[in-house]
């Protein structure tokens, strides 16, 4: 049979009866004639695109051919459609096939050399958007001897002139002809996507899996860093350097996921899932249920765990006069080294997809936000997404927060939730709606209670105010409170099972009061972490609580109290609102009640309790310093004995341990040791 449009799709294949592709095109044409109406044919001729489902594709093409060479099979469908249009009186038109249904995605680790030529379905976050390029796929060459014009197709971006003239001159010298009807160019762009975390643990080397994709024609220029996309395409190879090829996905169709907060691989909520969600929401001890699931390896610190769980759920995003108020709850943990801050961050990171863990020691400004690279040939810019952009609508855990070189880049990203870039004439804003969970060491290696919060950290107070919850983690447990913890840790390392009753006793030793006991209250049934993870994703994407009047009154009353006592600002009130909304969202309620407001107030009050203690400690320290100055002024030399220091401490009615207080003054440069039991006053 003769196929008029054969050369458009198979320029290097011979049109003979012995070619298997010829018969496949004929069979597909017969099937399409039975499916398409005249209206469908006219629409295809106008748009030059034919959209079909994966089920239709498998009905048109034998499965063995689709598995072995999907690219050729898609070209066969396009060729058959072009023949139908040609028979209907249209010109020879090249048709693009688009697969519009996305079946179960493949794991990046499963996409390897054995999948070459097959259709692959993957999803991920766009972390790099490459330069926009123009590629010539077909060009005319003129023989320099006889003037014969030859049409040559370019494959894999490789320039291939004709080997010899088809005329009798046998010339091998050709001149490429530019801007001729036979020349065909198309836009192309490379993007790199990062696999979404699926909750199955880290990859083999701890690095996120990446995959390169090639966009053509109308897909070029439609992607931005941070977009979550679903991709269907044919796995192929591209020449990277001499004798070295890399795997790439030649995109057939790509879809941007709009509801980023809800999307995750294989998240399909059935009726049974909703019933299970309802049982979880109505059960008792729901906070402890989540804490035991995601933070079972961390002992104690229930307040911090509760704050982190509320951060995973988040509040409700609002729009006030075209200004969006963030719903994300940012958490900062300040603590002495070796108290498990990194473990808390790692456990938080694995709770949700599209989350990342970054150490401030190795993080650059571009690594956190976005970088632009200029292409001198095309004049285009390539954008590389940083951690905050990649984790848009996810969780970004920043460890060693004090080691970050430039904290100023986080001001806009945390509050306005975008990163503005102005470089080389390119001005753009990229969304960074990430929940930031950070951990930092104090400025001098240990937390000094006699100094203010700003003096204990290495960054600006403006950045500190952007955190909704700030927890201070101190190694101040009494000796009797620590007795059971080492045994518990050693048994855990040896793989021994510790009964739940013993765990409860250990946790009870760490801290015990009414609020903590409420957090530790056991729930009913136990659920797997996968179910609870799906529960969080469902709540984040579908539940948007609003405050009741009684809840507003409770928050207002507490806000006025702390404003009078500490000079709290509007960000403190917004933080309280978000915490109350997150508490209601945890139980899938659309109304945040007064109980939710009181819970957020109690949690916020305990997170801020360090400020009240520091104020008292600083007042005591200042009062004692005045006594030391007066003594130095009276005696001249400034030498004082330890015994006299004991007497002065007794006169100040301080409840502190005298030796510890003297050691603290020595560390702060107030006293310096001069011989046995003698000190010199330096203030």
Number of domains: 5
CATH architecture annotation of the largest domain: 3-Layer(aba) Sandwich
Radius of gyration: 33 Å
CATH class of the largest domain: Alpha Beta
Shape: elongated
* Number of helical elements: 25
The strands making up the biggest β-sheet line up spatially as 3-6-7-9-8
> Which segments are poorly predicted (pLDDT under 50) over 5 or more consecutive residues?
198-205, 261-266, 496-512
SSE blueprint:
Elements: H1 6-9, H2 20-35, H3 38-47, E1 49-52, H4 54-60, H5 63-68, H6 70-87, E2 96-99, E3 119-143, E4 149-153, E5 174-177, E6 184-195, E7 210-216, E8 228-241, E9 244-256, H7 271-282, H8 286-294, H9 302-313, E10 318-320, E11 323-325, E12 331-335, H10 341-349, E13 356-359, H11 365-368, E14 370-374, E15 381-385, H12 387-390, E16 395-399, H13 409-415, E17 418-423, E18 426-431, E19 435-440, H14 453-456, H15 461-464, E20 469-473, H16 484-493, H17 500-510, H18 514-519, H19 529-542, E21 546-547, H20 549-566, H21 570-586, E22 591-592, H22 594-607, H23 609-635, E23 639-641, H24 642-651, H25 658-667, E24 671-673, E25 678-681
Task: Describe the structure using short key phrases.
five-stranded parallel β-sheet, 39% helix, single chain, 683 residues, Rossmann fold, 5 domains, alpha/beta, five-stranded mixed beta barrel, OB fold (Dihydrolipoamide Acetyltransferase, E2P)
Give a verbal description of the structure.
It comes from Ordospora colligata OC4. Belongs to the MCM family. Its main location: nucleus. It is found in: Nucleus. Keywords: ATP-binding, DNA-binding, Nucleotide-binding, Nucleus. This protein is α/β, with parallel strands linked by helices. The chain folds into 5 domains: 6-99, no CATH class; 108-256, Nucleic acid-binding proteins (OB fold (Dihydrolipoamide Acetyltransferase, E2P)), CATH 2.40.50; 314-476, P-loop containing nucleotide triphosphate hydrolases (Rossmann fold); 543-607, Helicase, Ruva Protein, domain 3, CATH 1.10.8; 612-681, Arc Repressor Mutant, subunit A, CATH 1.10.10. It contains 25 helices and 25 strands. The strands form 7 sheets. A 5-stranded mixed beta barrel has the order 3-6-7-9-8. The chain has a 5-stranded parallel β-sheet with strand order 13-16-19-12-20. It has a 3-stranded antiparallel β-sheet with strand order 23-25-24. α8 (286-294) crosses α9. It is elongated, with a radius of gyration of 33 Å. The protein starts with 5 loop residues before the first helix and ends with a strand. The model is unreliable at 198-205, 261-266 and 496-512 (pLDDT under 50).
């Amino acid at each position: 049979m003769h196929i008029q449009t054969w050369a458009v799709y198979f320029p290097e294949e011979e049109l003979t009866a012995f070619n298997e592709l010829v018969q496949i095109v004929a069979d597909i044409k017969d099937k399409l004639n039975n499916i398409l109406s005249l209206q469908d044919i006219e629409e295809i001729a106008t748009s030059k695109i034919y959209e079909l489902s994966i089920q239709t594709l498998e009905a048109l093409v034998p499965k063995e051919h689709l598995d072995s060479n999907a690219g050729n099979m898609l070209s066969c469908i396009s060729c058959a459609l072009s023949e139908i249009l040609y028979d209907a009186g249209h010109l020879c038109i090249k048709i693009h096939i688009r697969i519009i249904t996305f079946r179960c995605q493949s794991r990046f680790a499963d996409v390897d050399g054995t999948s070459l030529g097959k259709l692959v379905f993957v999803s991920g976050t766009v972390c790099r958007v490459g330069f926009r390029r123009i590629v010539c796929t077909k060009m005319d060459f003129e023989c320099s001897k006889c003037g014969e014009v030859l049409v040559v197709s370019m494959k894999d971006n490789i320039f291939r002139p004709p080997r010899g003239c088809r005329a009798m001159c046998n010339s091998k010298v050709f001149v490429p002809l530019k801007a001729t009807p036979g020349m065909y160019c198309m836009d192309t762009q490379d993007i790199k996507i990062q696999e979404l975390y699926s909750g199955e643990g880290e990859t083999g080397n701890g690095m996120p899996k990446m995959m390169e994709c090639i966009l053509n024609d109308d897909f070029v220029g439609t992607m931005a860093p941070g977009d979550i996309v679903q991709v269907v395409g044919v796995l192929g190879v591209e020449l990277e350097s001499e004798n070295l090829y890399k795997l790439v996905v030649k995109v057939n169709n790509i879809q941007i996921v709009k509801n980023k907060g809800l999307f995750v691989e294989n998240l399909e909520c059935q009726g049974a899932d909703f019933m299970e969600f309802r049982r979880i929401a109505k059960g008792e001890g729901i906070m402890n249920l989540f804490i035991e699931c995601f933070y079972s390896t961390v002992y104690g610190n229930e307040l911090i765990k509760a704050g982190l769980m509320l951060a995973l759920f988040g509040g409700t995003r609002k729009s006030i006069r075209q200004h969006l108020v963030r719903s994300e709850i940012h958490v900062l943990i300040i603590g002495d080294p070796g108290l498990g801050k990194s473990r808390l961050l790692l456990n938080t990171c694995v709770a949700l997809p599209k989350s990342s863990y970054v150490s401030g020691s190795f993080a650059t400004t571009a690594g956190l936000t976005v970088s632009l690279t200029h292409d001198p040939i095309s004049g285009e810019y390539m954008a590389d997404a940083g951690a905050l952009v990649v984790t848009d609508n996810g969780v970004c855990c920043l460890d060693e927060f004090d080691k970050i070189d430039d904290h100023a880049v986080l001001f806009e990203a945390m509050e306005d939730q975008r990163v503005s870039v102005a470089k080389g004439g390119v001005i753009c804003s990229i969304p960074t709606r990430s929940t930031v969970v950070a951990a930092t060491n104090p400025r001098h290696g240990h937390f000094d209670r006699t100094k203010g919060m700003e003096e204990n950290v290495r960054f600006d107070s403006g950045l500190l105010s952007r955190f909704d919850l700030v927890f201070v983690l101190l190694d101040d447990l009494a000796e009797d409170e620590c007795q059971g913890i080492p045994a518990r840790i050693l048994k855990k390392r040896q793989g021994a099972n510790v009964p739940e009753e013993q765990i409860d006793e250990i946790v009870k030793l760490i801290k015990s009061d009414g609020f903590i006991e409420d957090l530790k209250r056991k729930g009913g049934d136990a659920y797997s972490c996968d179910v609870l993870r799906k529960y969080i994703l469902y709540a984040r994407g579908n539940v948007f609580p609003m405050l009741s009047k009684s809840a507003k009154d409770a928050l207002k009353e507490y806000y006025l109290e702390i404003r009078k006592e500490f000079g709290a600002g509007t960000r403190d009130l917004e933080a309280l609102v978000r915490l109350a909304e997150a508490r209601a969202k945890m139980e899938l309620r659309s109304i945040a009640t007064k109980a939710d407001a009181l819970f957020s107030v109690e949690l916020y009050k305990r997170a801020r309790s360090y400020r009240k203690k520091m104020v008292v400690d600083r007042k005591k320290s200042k009062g004692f310093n005045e006594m030391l100055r007066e003594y130095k002024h009276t005696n001249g030399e400034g030498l004082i004995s330890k015994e006299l220091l004991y007497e002065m401490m007794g006169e100040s009615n301080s409840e502190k341990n005298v030796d510890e207080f003297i050691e603290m003054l020595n560390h702060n440069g107030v006293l310096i040791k001069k011989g046995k039991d003698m000190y010199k006053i330096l203030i």
